[in-house]
Amino acid sequence: MTSLAPSSFDLISPTALTAAYNRQFSNIPYAFELAQLVDAKTVLKQPSGDYLLKIVVPLLEIRYKAVNHLIARFSHTQIIELASGLLPRGLEMSERPNITFVESDLSAMIDLKKQLVTQLVEERSNLHFEAIDATIRPSQFPIHANYLRDSEKVTILCEGLLMYLTFPEKERVCANIREVLWHYGGVWITPDLNTKEQWHKMQETNSEVGGMFQTVSDLTGRSLIDNSFNDIEHARQFFREQGFGVEEHKMIEIMGEGEVFCKEQLGLDPNFVKYLLSTNSIFALTLDS
Ligand SMILES: C[S@@+](CC[C@H](N)C(=O)[O-])C[C@H]1O[C@@H](n2cnc3c(N)ncnc32)[C@H](O)[C@@H]1O
């Protein structure tokens, strides 16, 4: 499989607007404000449909909150988020002065993000913005940045990135993350171990899902299905070969149904919310010793 030219990644960036649009139905701090600022609905043709709204909106809210729960369990004070897009986590977490938060994305996207954040809050000395293509070798990660402390561990995050990347690209992300974790110690938290098995199950539930995959693929030039792991054992094996141990947490084990705010907004069936929480996972990856 050949890897695509780096500029092809920019085609993925509009998906961050879709995510921002869908997060505005949650009670995630700053999600509504960010979505309004970019006017995501008019900037981008949303893959619309009632069913999609009812599946994508809760999934994005659950994913965000589950990542936050796992961050809290590790309680590292230095956070590097890859492919931040329009996620509000940097804004939310940097309200705590003991946290150093690094938001990163491709340069056009991180420039936009910085500009939007500046419209919402005063500049914060513990919130940094870096242009990082996570797949580039040698790494663009801030290994020796003067705002990071060698004595403290780092939590690296990405949500909604790996499923767009080919396997050679994922390997380069792994190599870059390995270097950071070797240097500082810490953990990589991500829900991105999506599998073909999972996508196929989703497609079976409703015909709109297949249409959404096609829209994403037309928009980004990348197939979510082809770039996914066959099943969870394939994902574990891939990361083992890249030097990582994988700890899986079912979303339902780390967060409660009551936390899913959008279920009232969208009139979701509580059993459906329970189903989403029990069929989706989040992962903590650490270096094998
Ligand atoms: C689906 S969006 C997810 C954004 C955000 N994480 C969220 O959950 O809303 C995918 C993001 O990946 C970013 N991206 C694509 N290729 C990338 C790369 N090679 N390195 C870093 N970020 C990349 C895009 O710019 C976009 O912001």
TrEMBL record:
<dbReference type="InterPro" id="IPR007213">
    <property type="entry name" value="Ppm1/Ppm2/Tcmp"/>
</dbReference>
<dbReference type="InterPro" id="IPR029063">
    <property type="entry name" value="SAM-dependent_MTases_sf"/>
</dbReference>
<keyword id="KW-0489">Methyltransferase</keyword>
<protein>
    <submittedName>
        <fullName>MstL</fullName>
    </submittedName>
</protein>
<keyword id="KW-0808">Transferase</keyword>
<dbReference type="GO" id="GO:0008168">
    <property type="term" value="F:methyltransferase activity"/>
</dbReference>
<dbReference type="GO" id="GO:0032259">
    <property type="term" value="P:methylation"/>
</dbReference>
<dbReference type="Pfam" id="PF04072">
    <property type="entry name" value="LCM"/>
</dbReference>
